[in-house]
Amino acid sequence: MKFSELQLNDQVLDALEAMRFDECTPIQEKSIPVILEGRDLIAVAQTGTGKTAAYLLPVLNKLSEGNHPEDAINCIVMSPTRELAQQIDQQMEGFSYFMPVSSVAVYGGNDGVLFEQQKKGLMLGADVVIATPGRLIAHLSLGYVDLSRVSYFILDEADRMLDMGFYDDIMQIVKYLPKERQTIMFSATMPAKIQQLANTILNNPAEVKLAVSRPAEKIVQAAYVCYENQKLGIIRSLFAEQTPERVIIFASSKLKVKEVTKALKMMKLNVGEMHSDLEQAQREEVMHEFKAGRVNILVATDIVARGIDIDDIRLVINYDVPHDSEDYVHRIGRTARANNDGVALTFISEKEQSNFKQIENFLEKEIYKIGVPEELGEAPEYKPRSYDGRGKRNFRPSKGGRNANKGGRKK
Description:
Blueprint (H helix, E strand, L loop, with lengths): L9 H9 L7 H12 L3 E4 L6 H14 L10 E4 L3 H14 L7 E4 L5 H13 L3 E4 L1 H8 L11 E4 L2 H6 L3 H8 L7 E6 L4 H10 L4 E4 L9 E7 L5 H11 L5 E4 L3 H13 L4 E4 L5 H12 L5 E4 L1 H4 L9 E4 L6 H8 L9 E7 L4 H11 L4 E3 L41
Parallel strand pairs: 1-6, 1-7, 2-4, 2-5, 3-4, 5-6, 8-13, 8-14, 9-11, 9-12, 10-11, 12-13
């Protein structure tokens, strides 16, 4: 469906035309009419599906028609991280280019000047406030923010917000809002805690849910079955054959991110790291360097990197098998975006085999297994049911760096 077929006004359509947006994505096609009707909405959609436009466009459509107080905050968009808030703010600037709509992004950082700029925008009544929970509460606690006339309350990546411990913050913010409002919630998943939040803050919402997410077909997926101490050797072999460019490596913890980053730097590779121990300014700088191509490899945790929106990632490496199937889809979904091709590789240690088998079951496909380089020695067979999760293994080491599954092509 084309945007022109929706009930969007000329100002919104002019902005979309200037940005060369013509066709709706499925989540936009299903969500925009519901929001234009004024109904509360809970939508399940992954990053990279166009969900930001799905809620910004109909809200901007309403605000641009002038039926709102000009000296008040009319819309709040909540984001779990500074990085996502910045990305939403950038899209807001593009979509509102032809409209008399003001906005301010409110997120954390150690910059006192930034805080004062945010304070000014909040006090003047910016039409749209894009905020992280902690920073918005900081401004609210100082007594100069009036949310009593907010008409639209939007939660983006709601599941991630709850994962990061923001439930109490969200409920505290809700206390400042009028009961008569439109509430819109976007979430990548729908666990019980999200359903509970929806029942608490939404009023008879419409539900939009895309088909169960699967990785894009154009993503080439493969895996190495290996011992834990062989994983760095596999990376060394991969990058010895070809200079790394636009690579994200996911690790399961910030400690593992630090260890992998240190090891890659010792290999003289151009690498940056992203985890929660970094200050906001440091994380922003790493992302800027990565986007600019001055850093070739980004090593990151799931929580920090889940909102990364970069279209030309060529390779994703799961250094650790993700804990659940949806995280796997999120991770490898960083590549093969915007009609680009991409490769996703997963390193499976013997303790991670059962977990990876669950992912294969979810995907309803068997991921091709690549044999580890011969110089790394023997590798375990892929026999997930032979490992009982308590340290006991029942497999025969394969010879010549080959895995049992599919013959383990050498590389």
